[in-house]
Amino acid sequence: MNTSFFGELLQAISERGRSLLDRARARERRDTLTETTENLADLCEELLSNRGEASGVALAREILARYDDLTIGPRIAFFEALATRFGADHTRINAAIEAWRNKPSDVAAAELHAATEPRRLELLRRLNLAPQATRTLVEMRGQLLDTLTRRDDLAAVDADFAYLFSTWFNRGFLVLRRIDWSTPAVILEKIIRYEAVHQIRDWVDLRARIDSPDRRCYAFFHPALVDEPLIFVEVALTREIPGAIAPILELKREPLDPERATTAVFYSISNCQRGLAGVTFGSFLIKQVVAEICREMPRLSTFVTLSPAPNFAGWLARQRTQPSPALTEADRAALATLDQQDWWSDEAALDEMREPMLRAAATYFMTARNSSGSPLDAVARFHLGNGARLERLNWPADLSERGRRQSCGLMVNYLYDLGDIEKNHEAYAESRAIIATSAIRKLARPSRALTTVEAAS
Amino acid sequence: MNTSFFGELLQAISERGRSLLDRARARERRDTLTETTENLADLCEELLSNRGEASGVALAREILARYDDLTIGPRIAFFEALATRFGADHTRINAAIEAWRNKPSDVAAAELHAATEPRRLELLRRLNLAPQATRTLVEMRGQLLDTLTRRDDLAAVDADFAYLFSTWFNRGFLVLRRIDWSTPAVILEKIIRYEAVHQIRDWVDLRARIDSPDRRCYAFFHPALVDEPLIFVEVALTREIPGAIAPILELKREPLDPERATTAVFYSISNCQRGLAGVTFGSFLIKQVVAEICREMPRLSTFVTLSPAPNFAGWLARQRTQPSPALTEADRAALATLDQQDWWSDEAALDEMREPMLRAAATYFMTARNSSGSPLDAVARFHLGNGARLERLNWPADLSERGRRQSCGLMVNYLYDLGDIEKNHEAYAESRAIIATSAIRKLARPSRALTTVEAAS
Amino acid sequence: MNTSFFGELLQAISERGRSLLDRARARERRDTLTETTENLADLCEELLSNRGEASGVALAREILARYDDLTIGPRIAFFEALATRFGADHTRINAAIEAWRNKPSDVAAAELHAATEPRRLELLRRLNLAPQATRTLVEMRGQLLDTLTRRDDLAAVDADFAYLFSTWFNRGFLVLRRIDWSTPAVILEKIIRYEAVHQIRDWVDLRARIDSPDRRCYAFFHPALVDEPLIFVEVALTREIPGAIAPILELKREPLDPERATTAVFYSISNCQRGLAGVTFGSFLIKQVVAEICREMPRLSTFVTLSPAPNFAGWLARQRTQPSPALTEADRAALATLDQQDWWSDEAALDEMREPMLRAAATYFMTARNSSGSPLDAVARFHLGNGARLERLNWPADLSERGRRQSCGLMVNYLYDLGDIEKNHEAYAESRAIIATSAIRKLARPSRALTTVEAAS
Amino acid sequence: MNTSFFGELLQAISERGRSLLDRARARERRDTLTETTENLADLCEELLSNRGEASGVALAREILARYDDLTIGPRIAFFEALATRFGADHTRINAAIEAWRNKPSDVAAAELHAATEPRRLELLRRLNLAPQATRTLVEMRGQLLDTLTRRDDLAAVDADFAYLFSTWFNRGFLVLRRIDWSTPAVILEKIIRYEAVHQIRDWVDLRARIDSPDRRCYAFFHPALVDEPLIFVEVALTREIPGAIAPILELKREPLDPERATTAVFYSISNCQRGLAGVTFGSFLIKQVVAEICREMPRLSTFVTLSPAPNFAGWLARQRTQPSPALTEADRAALATLDQQDWWSDEAALDEMREPMLRAAATYFMTARNSSGSPLDAVARFHLGNGARLERLNWPADLSERGRRQSCGLMVNYLYDLGDIEKNHEAYAESRAIIATSAIRKLARPSRALTTVEAAS
């Protein structure tokens, strides 16, 4: 009689998740039938056939359940079958080429397009008929990506997954949700697991990051993966741009009244679904979170990151061990301290290294490029590509094991100035221009003196 | 602090709808800028360019808002631009063909596939970044379909919409919802508007169909169109297979205790979104509703339709006015009564016509084919294609104006026998076999005596 | 696995409503047992006994279901039983009085309080164990109130209901909800039915009042009556204080952009549940809606009603037909037009009556009192008691049949000035002071010349 | 436009929780005003006055916020004020007694009832106007209960709280919710904190109890305390009646397929809100959970507890240290092992003690009574009072520190046989009959030989 319509709609979405146990049971039944299941690819052919139209849901469910039961070896065999048996039809391609050559028209181009579509694309679309299929397909691609490092021949299969997912996970279908202490545990557990930048040790650590008045966390969700965050960002509200990570992660700090905050610091962004690699969410997430925070706290004026420099340690090591104009001799000498054991716990040594380190870092950001001419630093590529500018270098800012190993303790702030984002992005997009404050530019050694191209990151 | 996570997730989805007023306001502002807006296509180029990456959401919103403001003429001009300016790149196609001819490989096929993808596909995907974009794009295609009847040259554009929508509206993303008296008015209003088979006159009529213990209504929804049903079906619970529509639509009937029902009658299926024409939902909807009802009322044993025969009246008129073996002379004479005014209100005449009419109907279903060899009757094609069988012919069953005009008063029952659906579907799919009860087969005149192919429906 | 916690919580609340059909079925079964059901009061005794503790839910459900089946006569007999069999225990009272006289202590007062509590109070609390019981109990009191007019002896029973409901429906448990076009039809249907001031003719009329950008509607709900509004208010957003109702109810008006509104007009407040008579919600509703609107539209500065004067027509008729200082002779003569047929359709006559009518109205509001010294006008008592002030008199403002019959076409604006509400309320509470603008005060004939006390309204 | 009505209704309820931060801020502001806040009781008088009607919400909020800021001493002073200043009016009581003596009527009884109602009851009802007030009032009574042990004079105040809460938290307003891994963390955290029987060590332990296919957890909630469970029960699904707690709490067990379960074991019931002491939920909870589980798993046939015997250790110690017919000399000797250190880790000793221990336990349950004639065992009183029967004694069943200290390692099963509950309850209610299996009855020493009355538990 009196129920919540849209609530039930979502209920219906989420109840799909309940089928896991049923699946477990179905599996047992299946186990008694294993001799007949050898050929998953044949079932896929069936799904693409007439019969697939009538009983598509059941067939798709069966295929995904069987795939789920496979060990790695047979899964790779399945990927091979996708590559070899479910590509495009060469005869049809050749005929379509002939037609195009006779008369290059829209119709001929469309037929050529259709003829070159690998059959596995339609197969993946039909597999999605099964309950929970999207989840399984995303996991399937995760597995495929793991395989890919050793198996170039599966690249085409991966490209088809990527293409399909970028259509399905179109930004227009994503939903931004705040993550806080009223979020279901099933989601929070994943936030703990997926945090990739600054590890969340346990539920106490988690709570400090999401349930404090001066902390925020937001994630993107897709309606078909309702209890799986796709990407999330952690935000600290502060009164100034922070220069180190430890005070932000400190469990015992005194929370700031958010009314007094002036600055939102994005100190961690983590992708959650390996199977969605290459489908970009990060840029949209940051911009929408900025909009969200602006609406809640109109007084906030500064949006900034506190980011690692993941390729800095490697670059610096190379400059120190080979002749390089990137370092003056004095700085090279000062940075030799890095070779001492436990250099990070010697306050005096840190003091002495600080200036040389900042000069090296400035030079790194302003001049080090990868083989395609983009900044060598992967995080810089992301934020500069989004239209942020390089605002400040901080050292020492992260002396954790990971911080030392990747970034020699360096962290940087990228500033999102809403008025400049578009202009910055265009400058970057056209010429890979590094937008940075003049302070940083001045610190850097002149780039014309440098070999600016590094090996691909 | 303590809010409902998934509830808010959906809230977030649905709040997108609130932007309508904002859009109206934005429009006013835009009006003062009209001289600079002449070229929507240029904005689309921008959205496909680098700048589109940085400010895609804003650009997409702007383009869709401007499109919304256009009158029909300029909209058609926009479709033309999509056809002519946003197709595939011929040079790239030719180069890809060259590469394929040199070495026909997966890589070459993939490049050929990419080269032949019209640029408007990526454009449509980027337009979907805007809030509420999916809704606008579906409406846009509705408009395009209206245009298409006079403009063959836009068929390729339409095919791209259709392809994209069949990916976005994949069955795996749809949600089945029951429609009842606790459904929001904004949805119910659309059920009234979209009912295509047996008109819903007003809210009283609606309530009789959704808020009676022996009635059900279900619809498919997509999370991005949260207050727009895609397709819905109306169901009556009865104790026997019904032979006429009027008792089902009767407002003053005594409702049946659903516990005593044995039969679920699907008496109306309506597609709601013209812009989603060609994306098939009906087959999935019927099967899922059968599953839903089975779960709620395990005692129900019979699932059947009460359907019109929309091509019967035309076919019968042709058999009556030209020499045809489909009618015996006696039946032809009896059916001449159809030429009398108000034949439908003469009980005695109806009695006399009944047997001849049923024979004609049986012959129609068993033998009349369209040019592609499928049943001439469009509804028969749908249900037989889903694996139902033709169960019973009913006459007179619908003497409404529409019922007489389309079906000469005939209605038929298609039976969904869960055990036979797959087998029936395969028989139909392979040979267009008409699965019907022996009673109907015997009634029909032998098909070998007949010209079985009719002009396309 | 992944469901909405709070959503389900409410789901659980609302599913209680589904039991109606079950109840209908149970009723059939019961019908075969009618001979054993004669004594509902005995079942009530059982519910109050030990057995009631073990199987209270089932017993309560049974009692309420049987009550539901009764016709009016037996229901009144049941109320009589509540009055006579379920009062307080006189022996216990006398003992408690003895104890108090011996030693007037807190403990003795508490025992006296307990001893004087009628047993029916505990009975009503236990009846509430049944699913949907609150709804049935509210309806039961509605019936009791109808009976009360002829049956003084049931007043004590009614007082117990009123006491219990004022505890259960404490303002702290009510929830304010906006009513709009996305509200479930089951609620909207009740808005149509319960509107008591300006009838809602149909769904089109309803939609104009709730789904226009310059209209709002809010209602209070109680979690135990989830699809039953308790009271609702309709609001129009305007640019000035309105002087007539017709333009507000007009279906074809051009909606005002709410951004441009300066004034919120409360033009209709309706109580929905007869059974909750005497439990006051109106004052809280108005204040919370003011707060709600302020938050949504901070620019709004004026909160005002457009209200009928339901006791004015009767008062005026008395002044006109008997010697009274309330009217000058000239005004009395002018107002004689009211005796002419169709006076309301004669523009010239209306013009001439306007000033005399406004003078009479001012005198009415400033001087006419009921026997307890409060304003004679029931609506004035409500709004002045809430701390509003009488702002403006409008004539002619409502020439509908009802408007003429009750108010002679008069409507008035009460202004809620947030800064003055408390002060106004205190002045009214202490001395029944009529807070009105000086314009109205000047219009009124001096009250010392008048008999200010009227018969009770 | 398109939002979820009931979802928002609950949203509105839950958003009340957000005000905590605001309250913290208000507190700061208040701190500067402390000199004017000394007299909370005066504000309470104001809330009960006329002014309280106009600005009740603001006043109530202010009073509760000030109370919240108080330390324990001033809070007790506030309770004293409630006791002394907000009792009933003696003059009015005496007048009402006079009226009753003159004419003992319903009206006179009602006036006597009203006269003896302490003013603090109305005060508490008005305090509930403030946002989140119910929560604060429940906490306030928790504090009061702590005080009560030393302050008999506050008992009347506590009785008023208890009376009011039993009306507000009427079973008819409670909502049963399943607790699982999709429950918000804010609730789960409280489940961990409130578990009173078998401590939940951490989130891993919690997950094992709520997110395993053979475990269930249910709680009652009240809409005004939406993120506070009132009481919860933990259930294990098993294939037999369990005889020990450790296997149930084991983290590493293999979960049972719930389809194969035959038995639902209620192994822990915890009340959550100290402030609701005396408002009984447990009986309703068990019965509704039984109904819920029956609906989900109709095959389940056995509903049983695994319960401690919290008064057994004390009783047994007394029987062992003083002459008592409850133990034979042989058993007394055997049980002397309990005096040895670490007796619980000596398998052989346990074996030898087993039979004597079970005989003692049977005697304990069948014969030991408190001063009011009820079973000495508090848990037995609860379950037997609900209509369960004592089914089996298990030893050793809980050798944890708490298990040994309270129950000497004993645990018992109470069986809820749906067909017998009502009969059992009546037998218990009338004569405190101990319903137990014959096996237990036979094990017990004959009660006529025993002093059956123990000191109050």
Report on the structure:
The structure is a homotetramer of 457-residue chains. Chain A has helices at residues 5-15, 19-31, 40-48, 50-54, 56-69, 72-85, 90-102, 106-116, 119-127, 133-148, 155-168, 185-194, 203-210, 246-249, 282-296, 312-321, 329-335, 347-367, 378-385, 401-407, 421-431, 438-443, and strands at 175-178, 215-221, 231-238, 263-271, 302-305, 307-308, 389-394, 411-415. The first copy, chain A, is α+β, with helices and mostly antiparallel strands. Chain A folds into three domains: 21-168, Up-down Bundle (Butyryl-CoA Dehydrogenase, subunit A, domain 3), CATH 1.20.140; 172-305, Aminopeptidase; 308-449, 3-Layer(aba) Sandwich (Aminopeptidase). The first copy, chain A, has a five-stranded mixed β-sheet, sandwiched between helices. Chain A is globular. The interface between A and B is large, with 80 and 80 residues.
Largest inter-chain interface? A-B, 80 and 80 residues
Overall CATH architecture of the largest domain in chain A: Up-down Bundle
CATH domain class name of the largest domain in chain A: Mainly Alpha
The CATH homologous superfamily of the largest domain in chain A corresponds to: Malonyl-CoA decarboxylase, oligemerization domain
Instruction: Summarize the main sheet of chain A.
Output: 5 strands, mixed
Question: What is the overall silhouette of chain A?
Answer: globular
The number of helices of chain A is 22
CATH topology of the largest domain in chain A: Butyryl-CoA Dehydrogenase, subunit A, domain 3
Distance between the termini of chain A: 60 Å
Oligomer: homotetramer
Let me know the average pLDDT of chain A. Answer: 87
The H-and-E topology of chain A, N to C, reads as: HHHHHHHHHHHEHHEEHEHEEHHHHEHEHH
Q: How is the largest sheet of chain A built, in terms of strand order?
A: 1-2-3-4-5
Number of domains as seen in the coordinates of chain A: 3
What radius of gyration of chain A results from the CA coordinates? Answer: 26 Å
| Poorly predicted parts of chain A | 6-37, 449-457
Category from helices, strands and their pairing of chain A = alpha+beta
Helicity of chain A, in percent? 40-55%
DSSP strand tally of chain A: 8
The proportion of residues in beta strands of chain A is: 5-15%
